[in-house]
Amino acid sequence: MERLRSEGDIPSYGDGTVGGLLASMDSAGIDAAFVCAIATKPSQAEGILKWCEKIRSERIEPLASVHPADPEAPRWIRRIAEAGLAGIKLHPMYQEFAVDEERVDPLYAAAGEQEILVACHCGLDLAYPPDDDRASPPRYARVLDKFPDLRLLCTHMGGWRSWELVEEHLLGRPVFLETSFSLKELGPQRSVDMIRRHGVERVLFGSDWPWSGQAEAVRIVQAVGLTSQEQRAIFHANAALLRVPRPKGRPDDPGGSCTPPREQGLSGRPGGRNGSPRAVGH
Fold it and tell me: What is the mean pLDDT of residues 240-267?
C-alpha cells in the first residue's frame, strides 16, 4: 500500500485488511462487498485462490486473479470456477499487458467457458503516464468483439478519465460498469446520462476502498439525481445477480436482496443484514 500511495500520490482510507474493510462497511452502511486481488506474478495464482477461499463469507465475495503471462492461466480459471468464486480481477498496468493482446485470448476464452466474471481496471491510472493506453476503452471493445459472451466488468465507468472513449466504444454494449472514482469527476448530469444510455441494469456501485472513503462513495451515487429504483439496482440488485449462489438457508443468499441504502429509508424487498448498499470494492 505504501508503494501505491507514493507512486499514485493518493491517500488511503483504511489499512487494506479484511478487518479494516468490514469496519469501513459497517460505518458506511454497506452490507456486502466484492474484494479484488491482483496477481502481479504468475506464481501468485495459487496463493491468491487459497486466500480468497479463506476470507469468503456472507459479507465478502472475493475475486481471485491470474496472470496473463501464465501459460496455465486457463487451468487456474477452471480451478477458480470449481472453487465457486464469482470471478477474477485483472489490472493491465500492474500485470504489464494490454487487454487486447492475443496472448490473453486463452484466458478470456476459459473465463467465457466457465461463465465467470472478469473485472478489469479501465482507463488511465494515477501511478502511470497519461499516454498509457493498455486499458483503454477501444481495446476493451475489441475484446468484446472477439468474445461477445465474456462477462466483463469495466471499472471506473468504463475508463477513468477516458470517458469520451467510453461513450464512443462501450456505452450500450453488454458489459458491466462500476462507479468508483468517476461520478464526482463526471458531474451529476453526465453521470446520469451515461448510466441511462448504458442501461442501469449493467451498472454497479463501487468504492475502490481503501483508495476512497466508502461512505462518501455512497453519498456521491445518491446525490447525482438517479431515481430510487435506479439506486436500488446500482446499490443492490445488479451486484446480487453476480454473486455466486449459496446453498439454501445460508444468510447470504442473494435472492431478493434489493433493499435500498438505510440512510434513505426507501422501501424494498427485505434482504441483506442491514438493508444497506452492496458494494463492489475492487
Answer: 41
